[in-house]
From TrEMBL:
<keyword id="KW-0732">Signal</keyword>
<dbReference type="InterPro" id="IPR002925">
    <property type="entry name" value="Dienelactn_hydro"/>
</dbReference>
<dbReference type="InterPro" id="IPR029058">
    <property type="entry name" value="AB_hydrolase_fold"/>
</dbReference>
<dbReference type="GO" id="GO:0016787">
    <property type="term" value="F:hydrolase activity"/>
</dbReference>
<keyword id="KW-0378">Hydrolase</keyword>
<protein>
    <submittedName>
        <fullName>Dienelactone hydrolase family protein</fullName>
    </submittedName>
</protein>
<dbReference type="InterPro" id="IPR050261">
    <property type="entry name" value="FrsA_esterase"/>
</dbReference>
<feature type="signal peptide">
    <location>
        <begin position="1"/>
        <end position="21"/>
    </location>
</feature>
<dbReference type="Pfam" id="PF01738">
    <property type="entry name" value="DLH"/>
</dbReference>
<feature type="domain" description="Dienelactone hydrolase">
    <location>
        <begin position="47"/>
        <end position="263"/>
    </location>
</feature>
Length: 268
C-alpha cells in the first residue's frame, strides 16, 4: 500500500478507536534497483495529526540489517513526536547475527554510490507518507548506518541534519562541502577500536577545511556499538570488541535531542 494512504488510514482508525496515545507501527514494502525492501514506519497517533506536518526521521541500521534494534529506535523517536521510518538496506527479511555475513552484506556499499542511493530510497518513503514537514527531516544511523547517513548527506539530500552513532568515518567526497545541506552530529566512542587515528584525523580535517556545520562528541570509555543494549551478548557470541555503555547511550540520545531542537526549531 502507498505509504501516505497507509498512514492516513491508520490515523483515521486510531482517531476512532482510541483516545489514548500509542505508537502505531507498520511495515512498508518498497523497492530500489530491483531489490524488494521492507521498512518500518512508526508514529504516535496522539502527536501526529492529520493536516499538521510533523518532523520526520529516517533510521539506518547497523550492519546486521533491519533487526529489532533500529525498529525500537524508530519507536522511541515516535514517542517524541516524530514520524520515524527505519529503512531497509539489504532486502526484505535479510538480517544476520554473523559478523562474516554482515561484512559480506555491508561491503558492497562502502565507497560506492549504492550506499547513498539505497539510503535515498528510504528517505523518499518517509517523505511519501505526506505527513512529514519536508523542511524538518533528519536521518540517524548506527555503525554501518552511521556511515550511511554521512554518505546520504554528502549527496545534498534534503535533510536538516544527520546523526551518526558509532559510525565508520567514511572519506568526504570532493565537492561535498558545496552540496551538503545537512548539519552533522557525530557521536563517537572514544575507545572505539574500529576507528583509526588516521581516519579520525582525516575526517576532522575534511570537516574543518570544508567548513561543514558539524559537531563531534567523544564519550570516554565507550567502544563500538555503545548504544546497543544487546552489544555485550553479541560480543560474547561473535567474538568482536563491542560493548554497551549506558552512560554514553543516554548522553548521546540527549545530544541528538538537543541537535533536533536546534535544526527543527522546536523542543520535543
Amino acid at each position: 500500500m502507498n505509504p501516505s494512504r497507509l498512514l492516513a488510514l491508520a490515523l483515521a482508525c486510531g482517531a476512532v478507536a482510541t483516545l489514548s496515545a500509542k505508537v502505531v507501527t507498520r511495515s512498508v514494502a518498497y523497492e530500489h534497483a530491483g531489490v524488494k525492501l521492507e521498512g518500518y514506519l512508526a508514529y504516535d497517533d496522539a502527536q501526529v495529526k492529520p493536516g499538521v506536518p510533523a518532523p520526520g526521521v529516517v533510521v539506518f541500521p547497523e550492519w546486521w540489517g533491519l533487526t529489532a534494534y533500529p525498529k525500537e529506535r524508530a519507536e522511541q523517536l515516535a514517542q517524541l513526536g516524530y514520524v520515524a521510518f527505519a529503512a531497509d538496506m539489504y532486502g526484505a527479511g535479510v538480517v544476520t547475527d554473523d559478523p562474516k555475513r554482515a561484512g559480506e552484506l555491508a561491503g558492497p556499499f562502502y565507497g560506492q554510490p549504492l550506499m547513498a542511493e539505497r539510503a535515498r530510497a528510504g528517505l523518499d518513503q518517509l517523505l511519501a507518507t505526506g505527513w512529514v514537514d519536508a523542511a524538518r527531516v533528519a536521518a540517524i544511523g548506527y555503525c554501518f548506518g552511521g556511515s550511511t547517513v554521512q554518505a546520504l548527506a554528502y549527496t545534498g539530500a534534503p535533510l536538516a541534519g544527520v546523526v551518526s552513532f558509532h559510525g565508520g568515518l567514511i572519506p568526504v567526497p570532493a565537492g561535498a562541502a558545496a552540496t551538503t545541506r545537512a548539519k552533522i552530529l557525530v557521536c563517537h566512542g572514544a575507545a572505539d577500536g574500529f576507528i583509526s587515528a588516521d581516519e579520525l584525523a582525516n575526517f576532522t580535517r575534511a570537516m574543518n577545511e570544508g567548513k561543514f556545520d558539524y559537531q563531534f562528541i567523544s564519550y570516554a570509555g565507550a567502544v563500538h556499538a555503545f548504544t546497543n543494549p544487546r552489544a555485550d551478548e553479541i560480543a560474547r557470541r561473535a567474538g568482536i570488541p563491542i560493548a554497551y555503555h549506558p552512560a554514553a547511550d543516554r548522553r548521546s540520545w540527549g545530544h541528538m535531542r538537543q541537535f533536533f531542537d536546534e535544526i527543527f526549531g522546536a523542543s520535543r
